[in-house]
Specification:
By secondary structure, this protein is α/β, with parallel strands linked by helices. It has 11 helices and 12 strands. The chain is globular, with a radius of gyration of 23 Å.
Length: about 350
């Protein structure tokens, strides 16, 4: 189920373009950047973010805080008495967000019911299936003979995983979910409601979680193997040292020293959500929106989706070569089509990669 909302932030007046008429040696190659910017501004952007965690960890509030708008499912589809579902449900809500002339279709995918049952065995499976279903839908659009000029992108770009602020260690459920899902989607773990921990407890908990992630071979975003160069490695190493982010969410505004802030008011003071001295929400926001959004999308397309695509085309090729020549079809395509696609050498190059189902 999906609904749409519109959020608009007015932008500054358009500046006049620079001219290089007096520069004899100027060719104009750098103008390609402006051309790319114009095209991107016309097309807009898409970003699909999934939130996973048990009830009561502030998932909806954090989404509203991230985008400073009512973007969560509960905000758009309020239910006064929402009961915990008996099975995991996947629900999404889409918004058209605009800021300074930049348009983005934001889809927030919620997973009510995760981790809320007495027996949580295999509760990651519906989420894994949903992510792979989005890859499959994109693949089917991609291999169509008369495919669309721009394929709608419903692939999950990022999954924020909410860890309860126990202060002890990861639960077996946390380890199993991140171990399996980190192979198919970019996972960013966060410690929810971090204001319930002291600073010492928070630091110890973060260190324990990092050690458990390493011990279980869980590679969360930003993955070290995908650093493009030394500069990227330096930047991403600093981020990896902060993971998991200890966050606090709030969509309530207060006045502190004459400034409007988002925060949580207590008897002993106000917790400022965007103050890095109070929590690490600002670092999470910068990672997801201001510095790494495009990289998150690139890794989704070139690594996670490509791995799924290669495996599916390999499966299709094996199926077709084992059948007699009676022109079997898959989704309206002749059997020769996937084999021809595989002949490009992509499958041979990535054949060793596979998504764990």
């Amino acid at each position: 189920m999906s609904e749409s909302a519109k959020v608009h932030h007015p932008g500054p007046p358009v500046k006049a373009e620079k001219t290089h008429g007096s520069d004899f040696s100027y060719v104009g190659i750098d103008a390609i950047l402006e051309q790319m910017r114009r095209k991107a501004m016309k097309q807009g952007f898409e970003f699909n973010i999934m939130i996973v965690g048990q009830s009561g960890l502030g998932k909806s509030t954090l989404m509203n805080t991230l985008f400073k708008s009512k973007v969560s499912r509960k905000s758009v589809q309020p239910s006064p008495e929402e009961r915990i579902p008996k099975t995991i449900e996947i629900k999404s809500v889409s918004h058209d967000v605009e800021e300074k002339g930049v348009r983005m279709k934001l889809t927030v995918i919620d997973t009510p019911g995760f981790g809320d049952q007495i027996n949580n065995e295999n509760c990651w499976q519906p989420i894994m299936k949903f992510i792979n279903d989005q890859y499959e839908a994109y693949l089917q659009e991609e291999i169509n003979i008369n495919r669309k000029k721009r394929i709608p992108d419903s692939r999950v770009h990022c999954c924020i995983y909410f860890i309860p602020p126990t202060g002890h260690c990861l639960r077996p459920l946390d380890v199993e979910f991140m171990r399996r899902l980190s192979k198919v989607v970019n996972i960013v773990p966060v410690i929810a409601k971090a204001d319930t921990l002291t600073l010492e407890e928070r630091d110890d908990f973060k260190q324990t979680i990092r050690e458990e992630l390493r011990a279980n071979g869980i590679d969360v975003y930003p993955q070290k193997e995908f650093d493009e160069d030394a500069e990227d490695r330096i930047i991403n190493d600093k981020i990896r040292e902060m993971i998991p982010f200890a966050v606090v969410g709030s969509d309530q505004e207060y006045q502190v020293n004459g400034k409007r802030i988002l925060g949580r008011k207590t008897k002993w003071g106000t917790i400022e959500v965007e103050n890095i001295a109070h929590c690490e929400f600002a670092y999470l926001r910068d990672l997801l929106i201001r510095t790494h959004m495009q990289n998150i999308k690139d890794i989704t397309g070139s690594i996670h989706y490509e791995t799924y695509r290669v495996r599916r085309l390999n499966e299709s090729n094996g199926h077709f070569t084992s059948l007699p020549a009676v022109e079997p079809k898959t989704n309206g395509l002749p059997a020769e089509q996937p084999a021809a696609l595989q002949a490009n050498g992509v499958a041979a190059q990535h054949g060793a990669l596979s998504h764990e189902m």
